[in-house]
Queue: 3 jobs
Job 1
Amino acid sequence: MNEYFHSVRLIADRCKGCVICAKRCPMEAIRIRGGKAQITESRCIDCGECIRRCPNHAKTVVTDDLKNLADYRFNIALPAPTLYAQFGITTRIDEILFGLTQLGFDKVFEVARGAEIVSLAIKDYLKRPGIKRPVISSACPAVVRLIQIKFPELIDYLVPIDAPVEVAARVMRAKASREQNLNPEDIGIWFITPCPAKMTSVKQPLGSEKSNITGAIGISRIYGELFKLLQGGLTADTRRHSSWIGVNWAVAGGESSAVGMENMNRLVVHGIHSVSDVLEQIALGRLNGIDYVETLACAGGCIGGPLTVQNRFVAEYNLQQRARKMQQEDIAIGRKPLQEYKESELGVNERRAIEPRPIMRLDEDICKAMYKVEVMEKMLQQLPGLDCGSCGSPTCKALAEDIAQGVASETDCVFKLRERVRDLAQEMKALAEKMPPSLDKDSS
Amino acid sequence: MVEVNKEEKEIILKFTLQGLDFETAGEASGKIKRVLQQLGVGSDVIRRIAISAYEGEMNVIIHAVRGVMQAVISPVCTSITLDDEGPGIGDIELAMREGYSTAPDYVREMGFGAGMGLPNMMRCTDKFEIQSKLGVGTKIRMIIFH
């Protein structure tokens, strides 16, 4: 297997070796070693929970930058609808889109438009007979990775359709190379992203051989410049194409209402820990009456992404207002949301199966794994169960696993160490009290 | 409780279950599932084991006074036994029918006791045996090959 690319990284200088990130990581992928956080790459799903939690801002995301635009002859920005939620309703979408062109992009295409295409495709998919239910949304790449690792038995339940940004990129690469008469490789397509998980998907696509996206630029990375531009007031018109339906995808629940699930049994689950709990229930067959589960790693949906700037509740309010206004405007001028899509936009031929990544196993050899389970269970009974994290592992269970794997020792536990020191001290005291018979005046 | 039988190379997981203790419901089967994942058993097999263990666990909690669930995991198969003290099942054939349930209303309101437990267990397992005595209890033995 190729080396797994991750966008979440550590700025070692800032890391104080506290255990906050390790304890919040849903995959128990972080250990503190040598006073610094260390991410086990095979376990990381790039959900960004550690970025959100780190009080020292020691976690960062490798994203691209506006200077990368120089490597391409023609550059297209794909703004996530979450970008619109960073601004109040007085900043119009066409102003935001025009602002992006002022930052150096030649063209802008809304990911919300991709979301509308995907919504229609999911609607059709749900009509297919024989599909496994509940159908699980595959739009959030962190959730897809969580399923690959922890719930591989649910892979067949995932919507087999690309995420909106991938669809938007495919549409634009074809369109721009045709219109601009350019090789597809000369076109840079940049996702303006709210999260690291989507950055990772550019390098490590899910469900396809190669991504159509060239790179991803975090919203927080360009926000300052864009804000300054928009303060100045922009008059030029870059027309928006997407309707409220696509824009709503940025908020939890937006996807299922775009798919038209209001009258069906749907469930909206957001926040990676909650998503994990619900997937557990689905795996046990406990959500049999449900047709669709919208699952998002960030609380609140993409507006809660770690690379956003605005408070997520403010962002949600911004987006709600915006969507309502868009709906009114569109009804007034008789503009309808997208009604149809082409199969080619979905790139069905490029899709490949999403593979399980069973990294939970302790050893390739089941007999050795059984031995390790035994060591782990024995160890776990002896550990205090306080889950303090002082040993550098997030929980006592994780420490027991690390000991079984031979990468930690029992005395890494401060309580175990104290016990050992106490026993040793008692032994020393006992020894110290022993006198050789020649000097021992008490015994006679 | 976990034991490892060194001669036979198997892991034994033993849980005591208390009737109507919905707070801890699912913990035992969750633990079995985690151990199977750590052993690297195939995900479809794990799913079948997890569902049958969960249904078995829930049956004891819903219907019985108390019970013991034991999972014996070997490299080739997992066998789960449930042994409970409870009302027992009068007509096993009827109980095996999908949708047949004797669960009281309050249990159904919690989303359990839909009458799918036993049929689900049988569907998910390679070997399924059930014995019951009215007023004494029920014993279930299930084997799933890896």
Note: The two ends of chain B are 22 Å apart (CA to CA).
Job 2
Amino acid sequence: MTDLTDELDADVIFRWLTAAAASVEREADVLTELDSAIGDADHGSNLQRGFAAVVTALGKESPSAPGPVLILAGRQLVSSVGGASGPLYGTLLRRTGKALGDAERVTGAQLAEAMRIGVDAVAQLGGAALGDKTMLDALYPGVEALAAGGPHPYGAARTAADEGALATVPMRARKGRASYLGERSVGHKDPGATSSALLFTALAGAVADE
Amino acid sequence: MSEQQDTPPRVGIVLVSHSKEVADSVARLAVGLAAGRDSAPVEGAGGGPDGGLGTSAELISAAAHKVDTGAGVAVLVDLGSAVLTVKVLLAEGDELPENAQLVDAPLVEGAIAAVVASAGGADLAEVAAAAEEAYHFRKV
């Protein structure tokens, strides 16, 4: 049982990112399959390379506060992914980390607020909004559910992000390569929203809010 | 085709494409079409971190430092991750030379305009304006 007043340290964030890497590794083929329908079929392999670089970097240098761990991870994603998900996820983690500052322990409420700043930065970088059939369609519901609190905020965030990703199926893409497909982008689940939902699943696992 | 020590220093130009071949070829094309003048420092930064199609932050950063003669660096990009990566590198502050600028221009036509302008001694604002103007050149 975890609520938003419980404090999180660098270890939890480390477990979160390690779990995300494992999950991206496990789901790489699924992500690439989704991306082959409306993208350029590299989302799984790109994220796999990026999160592997995150785990390697955190193994060499492990900052002792949540913010710096996220900033380090974000930098790795920008430099090693090679596709649009690199700068986008890199911005998400980096901005979230910067918003948390150097505090060694942060509350769940502070993490939720910082993640909201991170998601807003992603929206600004990509010039996208909710409903454009992008990762934002999982990130916004996830972060809203997390911020709302309740007895199982992390589990609720995971569910909301999953539902958000599923809700991209009937949408028409308005951003990125999928937007060139117009109506033909309808009927496919967005790969970015799918990988974003994995992040919330990994977070719920890391704080053991099952 | 890169650094040529001209006086005064020329605006450097970085061409970012998902393809190494495209980036390097457009650089050669632009320098070739600017013949008759001293060229400007131009570098391609194409392809991803694994050498395949994509965008490499490291290559972009290295290319920008290579063409920086102090007069500014104009960065032209193709699309998607190339645009986003350059924006993030600029936002990070210390990844690109201080006077680097993302120019909103078509890659091929913009590169030619930028190289001609830079080779002719234009400053960063003029190089950027020349490249951006390439959007308004209608072909039919």
Note: Helices of chain B lie at 20-33, 57-67, 81-92, 107-119, 124-133.
Job 3
Amino acid sequence: MELPFNAYGVDPYGVSKKHLRVFFEVMAFFYRNYFRVRCHGIEHIPARGRAMVVGNHSGGVAVDGAMVITSAFLEMEPPRLAQGMAEKFINAMPVASTWASRCGQFPGLPEHAIRLLEEDRLLMIFPEGARGTAKLYPQRYDLVEFGTGFMRLALKTRTPIIPFGFLGGGAAIPTIANLYGLGRALGMPYVPVTPYVLPVPLPVPLEIHYGEPMHFEGTGNEEDSVILGYVEQVKERIAGIVEKRRHERWRGVEP
Amino acid sequence: MKVLILGIGGAVAQRVALRLRDSGHTVMGIDTRPWEDAPADVEVHEVDLRKRAAEDVFRTRRPEAVVHMATVTSLRVQGEERHRINLGGTRVVFEHCRAYGVKHAIFVGRHTFYGAAPDSALYHTEDEPPKELASFPELGDLVAADLYASTALWRYPELTTSVLRVSYTLGPSAQGTLATFLRGRRVPMVAGYDPLFQFMHEDDVAAAIALTVDKRVRGVFNVAGPQPLPLSVIIRHAQRQPVPLPMMVLRQLIGRFGLPRLPPGALYHLQYPIVVDARAFQQATGFTFRYDEVQTIQSFLEAHPPPRPRREELFDKLEALGVLK
């Protein structure tokens, strides 16, 4: 990966070679052997230059994000580090905050996104935010409301959006309820509950389908109605991918 | 040009003085601390900045540029006295600058102005307000001094004001917040956190301040050198021992068992990073740092190797007594 690591193996954002090595060793096992992830359309992510992969949340914990990052690392040649715009509560949690930042996953602030895109990095964005991970099992293929910040950033920084659909997270962590009170007490939005109580992911096959890049023209200062129109296009594209692929999920992928 | 340096007794201020003198400026200084081996051509006045004698220096010497480095951190002076020095002192400086026709005032502040918070941007730009002051009230007077100095930009338009927010310094003198923190053999960390720390060699800080005098840039600027590093990396390469402790435990142990003394608010800075974007200063002055992060840590380490374990010292003494062979 072409990150500007210094003599101590740390880049200017604190991304560390040592932490990335451990992270990807563990994640490669989960990607290949545990979840047996099937990844399609990885060629749509540019080999270099700024880009945003934007997709749906699937599953009550960050399995989807971890697998998307791992797919960009394992399936691309040369590998790329997808940098997530994480929920802010992660940065306030011990251990998680250190690991997240050492692996390039920063709180979802516009300042971070602009800076990283201006340095031609690859961003991973889930516009549904925490609302998306709170989906229960019956809603696992639904999309909830999208935020609009990513679209303004894409326009401002002239960044292509690569939509993706993530499938299987809902089955891997079949959430039957979310405990919001316990979550607040622990400093997170909620704690998902599965039929077997703990939100430990099951070894269910996961699928990631990347679609063709979408380009939007503008300055990022457009009226809300214009931005919402663009966001709706991205949402429709992702919903289309999820809808198409969920029906062929157990049959094999058609081109 | 006649340059007056306030707080000339400090390690970085002395470096600024020598650098300015070497480039042909007439350098004077004010400090309550003595500068023992000050060169003969640098005039040092051992007076309190807030007293009449300091005003006399302004009145009789008529400096054209003033570098204000006479602010203190919470580690040396605490409470009301700190307020008087940092905020009262800064006010006096700008009043004297205005009264005695100074053309350029440089306020040397700190990058901790922006505060540490879990939801802060990793790189702060100059237009950001100070955040999280509530968690670190000890920093309040320094932030107020910085803001007061910044208001001189519009209050005294005839005076060119430069407000520099300088990252931590590290180097052979081992003065400054980070260097003091790293001096001992064991360095505390908050368990589960490893924030990025941004630092620069004290010679580079001096060069940046001297360059500001020469270029006479107007405005507020972040000043930084090489890229930031995680605290654990700095500690390990300074050959110190990181001691990660849970926050609750650390609060009780700070200042005891060989751990450095810190105000409670500073512990927040051991959890979350404060990193500044210094591109505006580089563009305005053309500043480039000479010492990278490796050389800077090395220079600190060479001047201050880790103290020997007490046990070893004890054995040496017992050996000297003939108790041990």
Note: The two ends of chain B are 64 Å apart (CA to CA).
